[in-house]
Amino acid sequence: MSGFSEWLADVKDVCASEALAVGLPTKRVESWKYVPIRGLARTTWQPASPQTTEQFALTGGQFVNVPKVDGCAVSENTLTASEQTRLDRMSQAHGFGLTQAALENNRLVLTIQKTASVVLNLHHLANQASSAGFATLVLRVEAGGQLTLVEQFESTDIESANLSSLRCLVALSRDSSVTHVRFQAANATAHVFSNLDVECSENANYRLQTIEFGSKLARNDIYIALVGREASASVNGLAITSGTQYHDTHLAIDHVVGETNSEMTFRNMVDGKGEATFNGRVLICKDSQRSATEQSIANLLLSESARVNPKPELEIYADDVTASHGCTVGSLNKTELFYLKSRGLSEANARAFLQYAFAEKIVEKIEHRDIRELVETQLLGELKHGELIAELKESVDV
Amino acid sequence: MSQQEIDQLVDQDYKYGFVTDIESDTLPPGLNEDVIREISTRKCEPKWLLEWRLEAYAKWLEMTPPEWAHLDYPPINFQAISYFSAPKKQGDGPKSLDEVDPALIETYNKLGIPLEEQKMLAGVAVDAVFDSVSVVTTFKEKLHEAGVVFCPLSEAVHSHPELVRKFLGSVVPQNDNYYGALNSAVFSDGSFVYIPKGVRCPMELSTYFRINQQNTGQFERTLIVAEEGSYVSYLEGCTAPQRDENQLHAAVVELVAETDAEIKYSTVQNWFAGDDEGKGGIYNFVTKRGECRGDRAKISWTQLETGSAITWKYPSCVLKGADSVGEFYSVAVAGKKQQADTGTKMVHIGPRTRSTIISKGISTARGQNAYRGLVKVLPGAVDARNFTQCDSLLIGDQCGAHTFPYVEAQEPSAQLEHEATTSKVSDDQLFYLRTRGMSEEDALNMVVNGFCKEVFQKLPMEFAVEAEALLGITLEGAIG
Amino acid sequence: MLSIRNLHARVSDKPILKGINLEIGTGEIHAIMGPNGSGKSTLSSVLAGRDDYEVTDGEVIYMGQNLLDLEPEERAWAGVFLSFQYPVEIPGVKNIYLLKAAVNAIREHRELPELKAGDFLKLVREKLKVMQMDESFLHRNVNEGFSGGEKKRNEILQMQLLEPTLALLDETDSGLDVDALRIVGEGINRMRSPECSVLLITHYQRLLDIVKPDFVHVLAHGEIKLSGDHTLAERLEREGYEGIEAA
Ligand SMILES: Nc1ncnc2c1ncn2[C@@H]1O[C@H](COP(=O)(O)OP(=O)(O)OP(=O)(O)O)[C@@H](O)[C@H]1O
Ligand SMILES: [Mg+2]
Predict the structure, then answer these.
(1) Which of A332, A355, A383 is the last residue in one of the domains?
(2) Which member of A338, A345, A361 has the closest CB to residue C101?
(3) Looking at residue B3, what is its pLDDT?
(4) pTM of the prediction?
(5) Stretch A179-194: mean pLDDT, rounded?
(6) Which positions in chain A touch C78 (Cβ < 8 Å)?
(7) B372 lies in which domain range?
(8) A165 and A219 together in one domain
(9) Which has fewest Cβ within 10 Å: A113, A164, B178, C129?
(10) Are A152 and A240 contained in the same domain?
(11) In angstroms, what separates the C-alpha of C201 from chain A's closest C-alpha?
């Protein structure tokens, strides 16, 4: 039984009946091992309805105000065979994948035209209590195209569970590049699901920056396939988890051909009774010689009840590669704390400094200045005793 | 070691692949309650042990084989395996070496394990397990003086029933996992070691396992208990003849270290790996776990895994006592069509518990090598520390190296560090050595030995040499 | 101003300081020399309040209060400054954030008004100039990627801004080139005043040529074995510790 049963029963298609039969993934599904699904199972979910807004937004599972910008065209809603395969792979992964597919409300296909340079700002509006919206976004970036996609979440106070799910397919043609910034600061009762499936052709470059403070529960499934020579991908992620939040990112990168590069850096900072999971897997296939990958995961535990489950994985079938990963778990560094205190900072301020520094290592990589500043401001709001740093930034940054 | 010796070693394919022609008493293949009763009867076991076995069997029937490992093999037909095989012998078993079948002694001599005490490596007591039963334990006298019990588990069941009953299954419960449950139901023999309070075991203890009979599974069970303030270093070695069919080996090892006790457990595993095409070889599914029950207890696992068609093995430490220490040092080599999925679990429960994991994986030919490890820190394991390093070396472009380290941290003061790298043998290093006059093969050997050094240093002296030689044989033909 | 009496300290059960006695008057400069591992850094760290070190006996009175009772930041507020032998790198924290936060935290406890951004920048620029440091150091992370000598200069820069009454300088001269040594030495001399006392840990005479100490002490095996004036340092340079200990 899942909280989607009634809704699924109303949708009469194969996918829905499969989803009903399979149910939500339990702890026995390895990739959902740590996900607390109680909230999902207990709420009786209903379709969310869209809200009015001026912005390009995803609301109630629908895209509204799709911007008309040069170089970006809204395409027909039919998927290519390869897109369909990739979407099916998401759906078939487990019972929630099937649910996402069955309850999909809206699908948007955008094409970034050859050599165009486009910036898209997508706002996620919160859904009403007990309601859920499911949508799919398909982005086709033509040869030499450049896309900056910024996703932001609106945080309004909603007293009970709400859910939004976005599945996103991105195809990068040769020589194209995508910078994708995701800033998730959704309300404290939100359940946010994001599935990303990215394919990079020759010499294409995909960069993802994902920052997550918000929601009650967030689950990100990110899959990146480097299918053309000299394709590259980098992922920088930060999750700040506190209260009773649960944040979970499963990231997989496949090096399908040779001379491809990937890099992932992820940081978890967990306080209160929060729990964070990060699973990063890199696969280097048999013929992907001269590929390189680097993975680093850092986890900061700030309270007695905080939990973290990091897991970096490497699966390598080619010999001429360089692959490494590092993972650390710990609390704030004592020597650093002492150094700051010996300069007169109070314990609370010294701790705030170090927490900020931990997060800043990821945030500083956001090139998009407005977004970076927005993130920094909100980050300081999240931190206990962040005021001193906020004031310093204000006064001495140039 | 001289070049000549290396050459000799390299010249042989699998030198332990001979079959000993010896009369044996083997149960027909198949597994059911009656088989278990029969095993128990033949070993004249007490009733509680039979019941314990049957309980385990009932649990096993409910379980399914694990599928999460990075391994690929056809389902095992558990009814095609014989669960008991013993060299035929008169009466109660040998009282001394003179009563042991000379063919057996010859076998162990061929394996390089002389059982005759006067010829033995100084200071190493040996227990030899042939197929399912322990055939001889040496140096009994000397150990007895020190108060150390070192004998086959089947004997300990009679001589020290209270100890066996107290500790058997206390670290690896009957239903711990699929293969562990199977072992609990049908285990044949293995070693039992008991080190009393404050005793430092006067010599290295060692057990050699050999599977000889066709269609025979080996299910040994080893139990080592180190009482307060004691110390023991134990080594197991394993070989099997070359056969076309796969043979199953599902062992369980349980270690208990009380306050201030230290157990050092080393393994040189060289079961038959199958041929270059993946035909034959041992399926090695082993459960090894140690519990540091008392404060400042220490358990250290060191392993060299070169054999077996399939290795599924995660020697673990449960660190309960405050300030207790767990270590895992491993070299795993997967060549031919071998598959290894091995690593460790370190469970931090007590405050200030520390663990170190050093894993070196080497993949050659069509071998697939996976490190799988879990570092788990429970709330209350204040200031727990872990350092993990797993490095993989790839030699050739048909092999694979994989790393799956799990971390579950629930204690903020814990400090965990994990590092992993995967690379091939550097051309620069090989070139450098060759300009200094070494052959390509020797250069490779030297680089690989260097790669493994940290682990080999942890092996007892006598076996470090053996380990290096074994590695040399395994790498033979890796460059080409 | 500072009196250290019978100070014993250990680190992970290993006794290191075994009864240190030392009196430092206001405005005095004391140099401490001694073989590697003798406990010099331990002494300075204990004075600054690092909790890896456990004080097992003795007391330290600083301007009438028991220094050992204070937290590290309280010591800083009271005017104690430690220049670290190995300055700590803090990735992600800009140097200038630390400087401003530290200056104002200490001013607050001296009941001085907070420095506004403009005034603060003016002050920092002035000190940067003295230390011959580039302004870009302000916007880099604390000590991260600094060369050995740059780190030491950064420590002295901090000292000048924080205006301590007791400066503990642990091998601030190590790793400096000739010019930097002079700059750092002069930086220390500028601090010289009737209000500020200095405990200077060093291995070399060359810094003492620039900063003339009032007293020189030899610390060995956790005890002060010998004290004298600046000529003692010259003797050490000639004869080494072995010669002195034998004598
Ligand atoms: N955290 C620690 N754990 C163990 N031993 C320590 C620790 N800190 C210091 N020690 C030991 O204490 C002794 C004194 O160290 P200290 O750093 O005070 O020496 P020092 O006089 O400053 O030497 P140097 O001239 O080399 O800087 C040394 O033997 C050192 O190894
Ligand atoms: Mg020092």
Answers:
(1) A332
(2) A345
(3) 41
(4) 0.80
(5) 94
(6) none
(7) 16-425
(8) yes
(9) C129
(10) yes
(11) 18
Closest CA to A24 of A119, A122, A95, A104: A95
Residues 6+ apart with CB under 8 A from B58: none
SS3 C175: coil
The residue-averaged pLDDT of C125-138 equals 92
Q: Count up the domains in chain A and report the number.
A: 2
Alpha carbon nearest to ligand 1 atom 25, residue: C36
Are A326 and B400 in contact (CB < 8 Å)? no
Chain A contact for C135 (CB, 8 A cutoff): no
Domain count, chain C: 1
What is the CATH classification number for the domain harbouring C51?
3.40.50.300
Residue B258 lies in a domain: yes
**Chain A residues within an 8 Å CB radius of C100:** 392, 395-396
Q: Which domain holds residue C108?
A: 2-246
Domain that holds residue A391: 333-398
Alpha-carbon dihedral sign for residues A84, A90, A92, A98:
negative
Cα angle, residue C186 at apex, residues C180 and C191 outer, rounded to 5°: 130
Q: What is the pLDDT of residue B457?
A: 83
Between residues A378 and B326, which one has the greater pLDDT? B326
- What is the percentage of chain A residues whose pLDDT exceeds 70? 99
The phi, psi pair for A301, rounded to 5°, reads -105, 125
Helix (H) or strand (E) holding B61: helix B47-62
pLDDT at A171: 97
* Cβ atoms of A176 and A146 closer than 8 Å: yes
- Whether residues A306 and A349 share a domain: the answer is no
ipTM confidence score? 0.84
Residues of A in contact with C95 (CB under 8 A): none
Q: What is the pLDDT of residues A28-66, one digit of tens each?
A: 888 999 999 888 888 999 999 999 999 999 999 999 999
pLDDT at A328: 93
Residue B428 identity: D
**Does residue A24 sit in the same domain as residue A69?**
yes
φ and ψ at residue C159, rounded to 5 degrees: -60, -45
Task: Give the atom of ligand 1 at the shortest distance from the alpha carbon of C219.
Answer: 21
Report the SS3 class of residue B7: helix
Instruction: Indicate which of B378, B410, B413, B448 best probes the interface with A, i.e. most A CBs within 10 Å of its own CB.
Output: B410
A316–B412 C-beta distance less than 8 A: no
- CB pair distance less than 8 Å for C73 and A395: no
Chain A residues in contact with C91 (beta carbon < 8 A): 357, 361
Say how many Å lie between the CA of residue B346 and the centre of ligand 2. Answer: 36
- Give the end of a domain, one of A332, A357, A383: A332
Cβ–Cβ under 8 Å, residues B205 and B150: yes
Cβ contact A166:A153 at 8 Å? no
Low-confidence ranges of chain B (pLDDT < 50): 1-12, 90-94, 117-122, 480
Q: pLDDT tens for residues A251-284? A: 999 999 999 999 999 999 999 999 999 999 999 9
- Answer yes or no: is B193 within a domain: yes
pLDDT in tens, C197-236: 999 999 888 899 999 999 999 999 999 999 999 888 888 8
Q: Which two tokens stand for residue B91?
A: 């009466």
Q: Is residue B11 part of a domain?
A: no
The answer to whether residue B452 is domain-embedded is no
Residues A188 and A278 in one domain: yes
Q: Write the pLDDT tens digit of every residue in C155-195.
A: 999 999 999 999 999 999 888 888 889 988 998 898 889 98
Neighbours of B428 (CB within 10 A): 8
C67–chain A Cβ distance below 8 A for any pair: no
Average pLDDT estimate for A152-172: 90
Same structural domain, A214 and A268: yes
Structure letter (DSSP) for residue B477: T
- C71 interfacial to chain A (CB closer than 8 Å): yes
The pair of structure tokens assigned to A41 is 């199972």
Q: Are residues A314 and A368 in the same domain?
A: no
| B395 to A319: CB separation less than 8 angstroms, yes or no | yes
Q: Are residues A339 and A208 in the same domain?
A: no
Give residue B452's pLDDT: 87
Q: Which residue of C has its CA nearest to A357?
A: C92
pLDDT score at B238: 63
pLDDT at B240: 57
Question: Which of C76, C97, C158 comes nearest A389 by C-beta?
Answer: C97
Angle at B271 between CA B269 and CA B276, to 5 degrees: 120
